[in-house]
Amino acid sequence: MIITVASGKGGVGKTTTSASLAVALSKFGKKVLAIDGDISMANLGILFNMEKKKPSLHEVLSGEVDVRDAIYRHKTGVYVLPTSLSLEGYKKSDIDLLPDVVNEVADDFDYVIIDAPAGLNREMATHLAVADRLLLVVTPEMFSIVDAVRLKESAEMAGTPLMGVVLNRVGRDFGELGRDEIEMLIKGKVLVEVPEDESVRAAALKKMSVIEYREKSPASQAYMKLASMIAGDPIYIEEEKVFKKESFIDKIKRFLKI
Length: 258
Prior knowledge:
ATP binds at residues 9-16. This protein is of the alpha/beta class.
């Protein structure tokens, strides 16, 4: 299964979720490939301490090397297709080749986790097109949800079903929206709530996933729960529901013009 992990805006913990989900699924005995699909930033590669690996996805997307020559096995057991920090490599990359690259190796793995760039752009359209499922990462604040709704609409146009929503960084003073409100707006199920956890930041500084850094931390346990849901049956695809109108929700909908 190919899962694109995406967010409507940056800074919500998308890459942390991608890396942590990949490591967690590996702990459940699954063979997992994590792809650093944000070819301009290399954030996923940094979390796996592979941002300096050559060849990388850049060389694959420029047609210089075969994709299997750019896949590396991390000590967690996760296979990683990293992106480098090279600006020249980025300029040479053809993102339109990504679907062919992913499909060439997808059957070798139980799960392919693609860390997509944040926002709605041409690159995102390619990431949605190649995916079997979309996993949305949001924080419980209005602008994150606004952008996520737009991203979900784009996924629907591409024919990519929503697997569900990861509600991240819960517990910060955002004037937070509640889980029920978020599900009503996105019309998708919140699979897991990941609490604000200092271990996430500490892990990133050490270039590792939070599960590798501290498996018993609150965030790690949330990601392990997410992986257990995805790896089990049934696959968590939330059907759209009809919700009662509520005044607060109406205000948000007017803001979204939906």
